[in-house]
Amino acid sequence: MDFESYDPPSSLVVPEHQLTHSKFPFIDVHSHHWQMDKQDLNQLMREMDSLNMGIVVNLSGRGGEALKAMVDNVKKQGYEKRIAFFTNISFNGLDDADWQTNTLKQIEFDVKTGAVGLKIFKNLGMDVKDSKDKRVPIDDPRLDPIWAKCGELGIPVLIHSADPKQFWEPFDSTNERWLELKTHSRRLRTASEVQWEQIMKEQHSMFKKHPKTKFIAAHMSWHANDLDMLGKLFEAMPNMYVEIGAVIAELGRQPRQALKFFTKYQDRVMFGKDSYVPNEYPTYFRVLESNDEYFPYYKRYHAFWRMYGLALPDDILKKLYYKNALKVISGLDGSRFPK
Ligand SMILES: [Zn+2]
Q1: Is the pLDDT reported for residue 7 higher than 90?
Q2: Which pLDDT belongs to residue 2?
Q3: What residues does 120 pair with on adjacent strands?
Q4: What spacing in Å lies between the alpha carbon of 10 and ligand 1's midpoint?
């Protein structure tokens, strides 16, 4: 028998609280829906209602006419208060004379169309190259006008940089993500020209250069396994926020440390999920709300360990679920959320 097949059911008998919906309405600030220009949204609404999701933020807004088609379809079906969009930009042609002007114009158009933020994908810092075929660092000065414009327009930038640090580490018995790298071998970054630490450094240096712009670092900036370090980053960058997408298993394995962190930095963390899979949300609710012990995560290749509930107090839960998002993403409609 090997590691992959050894996964015995737990014989532990303890109280269990399976939660089907969140205690307070929540805003998912990190979601992706690619068909919203033509999608019938009624099914999505039914799922959102049953989970108690008040607003979903679709980070795949694309921009320009594509964004407009999505916004129009959402409005036509009457769901503009429940579905929000972050727009996207392209770094192709970064060194062309009109790239900057056109990109700034596009962002202005998108905000007028209804975008409430800008989402930057992880290709920046890893794969985006300039006209000389050189990697474009996240804190590259050529991008400064973009971040400044977002601050000016009062929209936050949600940015996903790098991947879990283990993807850069040796693929062997010492790697906590060994199973993920075995089943998803393209995620292995050991041959990458840029190191994880470098990408992170660039992200944070960019945040520091633009104190008037609010940044939401996706996936807790991949520091959910070192919350003291994330706290230090928060102290150094008052304009930095995070969301918890795809790192719930990190929080669930350190319930006491995570509760301390969520208490101290209760104004800086938002709810996000990333992949939209309705039946995975209850695990998030259970980690955040319950006091349950030793329960499983739903993807063993993310976490071979079991988790514990944080039992967050109501006032912190409300901030995490919606208050912080409403404060930072000012274009959202707050009318359906309790004061
Ligand atoms: Zn995402």
Answers
A1: no
A2: 84
A3: 159
A4: 32
Q: Are 187 and 167 in contact (CB under 8 A)?
A: yes
CA quadruple 20, 26, 27, 30: dihedral, nearest 10: -40
User: Which tens digits make up the pLDDT trace of 81-114?
Assistant: 999 999 999 999 999 999 999 999 999 999 999 9
| Domains within the chain, CATH numbers bracketed | 26-328 (3.20.20.140)
- Those residues whose beta carbon sits under 5 angstroms from the ion ligand 1 are 274
5 has pLDDT over 90: no
Whether residue 300 contacts residue 288, with contact meaning beta carbons closer than 8 Å, is answered with no
Tell me, in angstroms, the distance from the centre of ligand 1 to residue 309's CA: 25
Q: What is the pLDDT of residue 301?
A: 87
Burial readout 287-309 (b: 16 or more C-beta within 10 A, e: otherwise): bbbbebeebbbeeeebbbeebbb
Which whole number is the average pLDDT over 206-235?
98
Q: Residue 274 C-alpha to ligand 1 middle, in angstroms? A: 5
Rounded average pLDDT over 31-54 = 98
Strand partners, 26: 53
Cα of 13 vs centre of ligand 1, distance in Å, is 36
Q: How far apart, in Å, are the Cα atoms of 283 and each of 10, 21, 93?
A: 17, 10, 42
pLDDT at site 89? 98
Alpha-carbon gap, residue 110 to 94, rounded angstroms: 19
State the average pLDDT over residues 131-137.
Answer: 97
Cα 122 to averaged position of ligand 1 atoms, centre (Å): 9
Among residues 89, 72, 92, 90, the alpha carbon closest in space to that of 80 is found at 72
Token pair in block for residue 94: 């970064």
Q: What percent of the chain stands above pLDDT 70?
A: 100
Q: What is the pLDDT, as a whole number, of residue 32? A: 98
Q: Compute, in angstroms, the gap from residue 28 CA to the centroid of ligand 1.
A: 11
Cα(12) to centroid(ligand 1), Å: 35
* CA 149 to each of CA 117, 122, 156: distance values in angstroms, whole numbers, following the listed order: 11, 20, 10
User: What pTM does this model have?
Assistant: 0.98
